[in-house]
Amino acid sequence: MKLHEYQSKAIFANYGIPIPRGRVTENAAEARAIAEELGGRVVVKSQVLVGGRGKAGGIRLAKTAEEAETVAAQLLGMTIKGLAVRRVLVDEAANIETEIYLGITNDRAARKPVIMASAAGGVDIEEIARQSPEKIFKVHVDPLLGLREYQARDIAACIDIPREYWKSFIAITRGLWWAYCETDATLAEINPLVITANHQLIALDGKMVIDDNALFRRPAIASLRDVDEDTEAEVEARKHGLAYIQLEGQIGCMVNGAGLAMATMDMIKLQGGEPANFLDIGGGAGADKVAAAFRIILSDPKVRAVLINIFGGITRCDEVARGILMAMTDVKSTIPMVVRLAGTNAEEGRNLLRNAQMITAETLFEAAQKAVALVEGS
Ligand code: GDP
Ligand code: MN
To answer: In this structure, what CATH number is given to the domain that contains residue 66?
Structure first.
């Protein structure tokens, strides 16, 4: 789950990281009022869950409160990379001398968190990571020992932070580390962390991504979710405990088990097709869950065919079939479907589906072949 900049910075502040004074609002008149409180010179920042807002024109400086209102009104009417701007953050403007990048993420290959830092922070950091990776300094943190102070000092030295800022930089790095740990984040990033003209280190931007699988034990963080930013299908899937990710292709997939779902997607691709989604209905899914999954798949207008691949272990194939039939009575779709059922009660399941215009297949290979043929023929 991604957090907005204003949410991430509020968390950072709880860990002692200095952030600019400011507030979030949904209307331009209030943006003006906030700017007045802050003394006029502000930066008005679109709160959308995508990177590169600055380059997309979503971050604007305003010299007066009046200008802040005008700029906020413009931003609130914008969409950035397909997302409507519903809120803006109005922050006291900073006079930037240096832009630093500081981030923590999981390095799966190393099986450890990694802290990354660069003196070349700011909007071009992705470009720098690609063109001159040596400008980004990395330190792995042992998850059992936690961040050691010498490591933070090492980072400060390696990215040439002037001595007078070391104490503050080390405190910020430690704060970011704890914010990362205690929210179960998979990313905690400050870009830019700036040195201002009046000699302060401040986190001007903030980005956090929280591990979805940890949200059950972080209710306060879970409540920060912005459902406006999710598609209806994603909201629906979450409600039913389905793992659903929408993709670009035309073949909708309903599978039980993440591994089988991935294998199914691979098989579709091998046959020259493209999956429309990843969908894992999980183990032991009953008819209700199957029906919900079915509705979600068919709500995607790109879907030209559906491939259902169920291995009945704990999940019973006849339950799955009943779920599909139940969903078909209220969805009434003309999209062709290929079903492959294997395992517990597969025969009963197939019998139930026989009269429902569904094409069956014995193997996954055959099922994928048929689904791709249906898309090509339509
Ligand atoms: P992003 O483009 O989505 O990463 O948004 P940021 O919050 O990082 O803003 C992009 C850029 O806008 C920053 O790298 C800064 O160069 C600039 N910026 C943001 N806030 C301020 C500010 O208070 N003062 C000045 N001068 N520039 C700012
Ligand atoms: Mn940024």
So the answer is: 3.30.1490.20
Q: Average pLDDT, whole number, for the chain?
A: 93
Residue of 49, 89, 96 best suited for mutating to test ligand 1, as the one with most atoms within 8 Å of CB = 96
Q: What is the pLDDT of residues 202-247, one digit of tens each?
A: 999 999 999 999 999 999 999 999 877 777 888 889 889 899 999 9
pTM for this one?
Answer: 0.79
Supply the residue whose CA is at minimum distance from atom 14 of ligand 1. 122
Same domain, 269 and 201: no
Query: What is the predicted pLDDT for the residue at 167?
Result: 97
**Mean pLDDT of the region 142-147:** 96
Write 52-59 long-range contacts (CB < 8 A, 24+).
52/81, 52/123, 53/80, 54/123, 55/123, 56/80, 56/81, 58/85
Active site residue 189: yes
Closest to 321 in 3D by CA, of 350, 288, 360, 294:
350
Pair 318, 349: CB distance under 8 Å: yes
Domain that holds residue 117: 96-222
Ligand 2 geometric centre to CA of 59 (Å): 10
Which has the higher per-residue pLDDT, 299 or 67? Answer: 67
Q: Is there a domain that residue 42 lies in? A: yes
**Residue 122: pLDDT over 90:** yes
Q: CB under 8 Å to 268, separation ≥6 — which residues?
A: 249, 251, 253, 274, 275, 307, 368, 371, 372
Among residues 101, 180, 244, 319, which one is catalytic?
Answer: 101
Residue after which a domain boundary falls, among 71, 92, 113: 92
% the chain with pLDDT above 90: 78
Neighbours of 76 (CB within 10 A): 19
| Known active-site residue 101 | yes
Residue 275 pLDDT: 98
Instruction: Tell me the average pLDDT across 96-104.
Output: 98
Ligand 1: nearest atom to the Cα of 122: 14
State in Å: Cα 123 to ligand 2 middle: 6
Are 73 and 107 in the same domain? Answer: no
Q: Which of 91, 99, 205 to probe ligand 1 with, by most ligand atoms within 8 A of CB?
A: 205
Residue 8: predicted pLDDT: 98
Is the CB–ligand 1 distance for residue 289 below 6 Å? no
Q: What distance in angstroms lies between residue 83's CA and the mean position of ligand 2's atoms?
A: 17
CB-ligand 1 contact for 204 (6 Å cutoff): yes
